[in-house]
Amino acid sequence: MKNYQTLEITAVLALGIMFAAAEPARAQEDKTIQGDRTIIENIPFITQAPQGHWNTEPWANACEETSLSMVDIFYDIQLQNSDANKLAYKMEIEGDTHAQSKIILDMLGLKNDVFGITEDETPHMMRAVIAKNLQWYAQVAINPTVEDLKAQIDLNRPVILPVYGELLYNGQYAYPGPDYHVGVLVGYTNDTFIMHDPGTNRGNYIEYNIETVMDSMESLVNNGFMEQKSAVFTAPNSESYNFDHLDSRTGQHDLRKINVIEAAENMYQETITPGVELIAMVRKLISVVVYG
User: Fold this and answer.
1) 10 Å Cβ neighbour count for 249?
2) Which of 1, 27, 145, 207 lies in disulfide reach of 192, CB 3.0 to 4.6 Å?
3) Given this model, what pLDDT does residue 226 score?
């Protein structure tokens, strides 16, 4: 169960392992380098509770759908024919909380069509939603390195990142922070990764220390945490990814679009080991005992 009640004392209180093929040159135009900051431009920021209902479902557990939505809008923005239109599209989305809520609910509906009502979604489940419903492509990268993550950003590809939220030590979370959480990596500096973190109202372009991000990266399998780290690498079209390189790095089978739904459903139905289940239970118990 996630806990996203934020600490802002503001008016809110009152209200890819890598894809190997070359990227088309156009995509590179939307990445900027500012000093030591490398940023993918035109990724809108959406909080998972646009109208402030942090403790109400579905918003309390909507970080996955919100992260998917941010990336989906980004790839949609890339179809605009000018930089001015791209910026206008981004600003229009960021300025309309009602539209943001509808976008998240629409993504939730797409997820429910595949898996039914679920509280949390694994990386493979998110990839299945992308494969069945969206016009861009994704692959689950197992144990990605710092260099792997930076390389995706250099290629102008946002990375959907599952983490154990408490380990991000974000002071904007209600203490101690969420357990399973998902955000979008949108850039990096020499020492940090830059994330659109939907778990707070001020989550746009948050910088987390690189070591902190790598330590917090964690996957979820059937509501049990595992030590295996993973990320969802994305690509705009079928010409800009290559599974062969990824599969050789991960040792996984080539899960192409034709069978990704079945594969994800099988993984979702797996029974987690007693050890993994015990770890998850102990973590929750510690949070209850220590933090109340």
Assistant:
1) 18
2) 207
3) 58
Q: Name the CATH topology of 11-291.
A: Cathepsin B; Chain A (3.90.70)
Distance from C-alpha of 2 to C-alpha of 180, rounded to nearest angstrom? 7
**Rounded to whole angstroms, how far apart are CA atoms 99 and 78?**
19
Q: Are 121 and 111 in contact (CB under 8 A)?
A: yes
The DSSP element (H or E) to which 210 belongs, if any, is: helix 210-216
CA 151, CA 141: separation in Å to the nearest integer?
13
In the chain, domain spans: 11-291
DSSP state of 20: -
Contact at 8 Å (CB) between 243 and 254? Answer: yes
User: ∠179-180-183 over CA atoms, to 5°?
Assistant: 120
pTM of the model: 0.75
pLDDT on residue 243: 42
Strands (E) across 69-158 are located at 137-142
Kindly tell me the burial class for residue 153, based on how many C-beta atoms sit within 10 Å of its own C-beta (0-12, 13-18, 19 or more): buried
Q: Do you know the residue count of the chain?
A: 292
In tens, the pLDDT along 190-248 reads: 999 999 999 999 999 999 999 999 999 986 655 555 557 899 999 997 655 554 444 43
pLDDT at 47: 96
